[in-house]
Amino acid sequence: MEWNFSTAEELAAALRAGEVTSAELTDEAIARIERDDKAINAICVPDFDRARAAARGADQARARGEDRPLLGIPVTVKESYNIAGLPTTWGIPLHRNYMAAEDAVQVSRLKAAGAVVLGKTNVPLGLQDIQSFNEIYGTTNNPWDHRRTSGGSSGGSAAALASGFGALSIGSDLAGSLRTPAHFCGIYAHKPTLGLAANRGMVPPPGPALPVEYDLAVVGPMARTARDLTLLLDVMAGPDPLTLGVAYHLTLPPARHERLRDFRVLVLDDHPLIPTGSAVRAGVGRVADALVDGGARVERHSPLLPDLTEAAMLYTQLLFSSSVARFPVEAYEQLRTRAAQLSADDQSLDAARLRAMVFSHRDWIEADSRRQLHRHGWRQFFTEFDAVVCPITPTPAYPHDHNPDPRERRIDIDGVEYPYFDQLVWAGLATMPGLPATAVPAGRSPEGLPVGVQLIGPMFEDRTPLRLAELLEQEIGGFQTPK
């Protein structure tokens, strides 16, 4: 039997039953990577010798009677996580030789749970793109169409999962970096509630691995099924033992409902700032139909929904104000000059990005205050609804575009071009207020490309969108092997 596309849950059961060993699973995964990854380029830093040693150790532990959540299961890790003895570059040529001295907290949790780490997966330069390519490791291709991107910044992890390179992976998400690659590659991913999973050791080189609480960014799980997402989230979730973990212990509330017919869901497929392409709109429609058929209460409008335009503007301001914090003074002054030349009437997202790059601290405090109002609005919203279904990006995966100036890139939405970064508005809907969001497959486009949607849930109620994802998987299907 070939195990490479089995779920982590299935592998765990087979290992417990003695039907296969971790050494066998690991050898099979490595053989597949060596055979297929030349065309995909998902695994940028293989660690096969240590993986085989870890697999042997897992088999010995099981023989002693041990049983941990991921014992013996092959996994991959996004390149941006520190793993002792391996390079952490974030795709930055200056740091191509930087070696991590210790494991990131999430890598430690994977290993403590018994996972076998096959290696690290590719990322874009500085994690700052919706594609995954860099000068050090090259370009990661979409397993469904090698001419197209796998997404970013966790594009290597998504491509690895879609290709059968390990059962699970861990990534991160600031601007859809878990959800967009999942959508493009036809897999599952979960952006946890802000602060739910510790991120120490997911830091740009050569920075120290400090327990910093990021403003928008999270770390999270990627898998080929919704149940596997929950399995991995349970390993990842919890405060950093150096800070909040000193005093607090995590207990996530259960999902609000167990049956599809008990869910109350708002379905969105229109955004005031960017159109939704026909393929993605169809994917949202398939999920909406499945919800209705399953007896869920489905609405298309609600006065409780926070304003989408203001939400997108706030997200843009918070995201891009932080992106230039370490720019050289000369570059920052050039941005100030360009921003001063903007017309007061220019309320485009492009203008919002430029103005945000030169925010004062006072400006940022004002934006953060408005974010708190949105969070309050979402709390009120989730007294009447359990989840929101909406796009992740307006289109399926698009052809590789390596124009060094992203401002000159465009995305094609049903034949009309739009600024490249405008597609982030849907990702920001959950990111700005810090809500959990689960990316789920929702069929394929007419060209045969995967299409995904996201399920946004209440803050710290991550099990609610995850359970909804599991129920939808039963109704409309889930991961399919790329043809």
Based on CA inertia axes, which overall geometry fits? Answer: globular
Strand content: 15-25%
Structural class: alpha+beta
Please provide the count of β strands: 17
Task: Indicate the CATH topology of the largest domain.
Answer: Amidase signature (AS) enzymes
CATH class of the largest domain: Alpha Beta
Unreliable spans? none
Tell me the CATH architecture of the largest domain. Alpha-Beta Complex
What is the count of helical runs? 14
What fraction, in percent, of the residue positions are helical? 25-40%
What's the number of structural domains? 2
Cα Rg: 21 Å
The CATH H-level superfamily of the largest domain is: Amidase signature (AS) domain
Protein name: Amidase
Enzyme class: hydrolase
GO molecular function, one term: amidase activity
Organism: Streptomyces cellostaticus
Task: Summarize the structure in words.
This protein has 483 residues and is α+β, with helices and mostly antiparallel strands. It folds into 2 domains: 8-246, Amidase signature (AS) enzymes (Alpha-Beta Complex); 260-476, Alpha-Beta Complex (Amidase signature (AS) enzymes). Helices cover 36% and strands 16% of the residues. The chain contains 14 helices and 17 strands. It has helices at residues 8-17, 22-40, 48-63, 105-112, 155-162, 179-185, 226-236, 278-293, 308-323, 329-340, 349-357, 361-381, 425-431, 463-476; strands at residues 43-46, 74-78, 116-121, 133-134, 138-139, 141-142, 145-149, 168-173, 188-191, 218-223, 264-267, 297-299, 387-391, 410-413, 416-419, 437-444, 450-456. It has an 11-stranded mixed β-sheet with strand order 1-3-2-8-10-9-16-17-13-11-12, sandwiched between helices. A two-stranded antiparallel sheet has the order 4-5. The protein has a two-stranded antiparallel sheet with strand order 6-7. A hairpin with a 5-residue loop joins strand 16 (437-444) and strand 17. The model has no long low-confidence stretch (mean pLDDT 97).
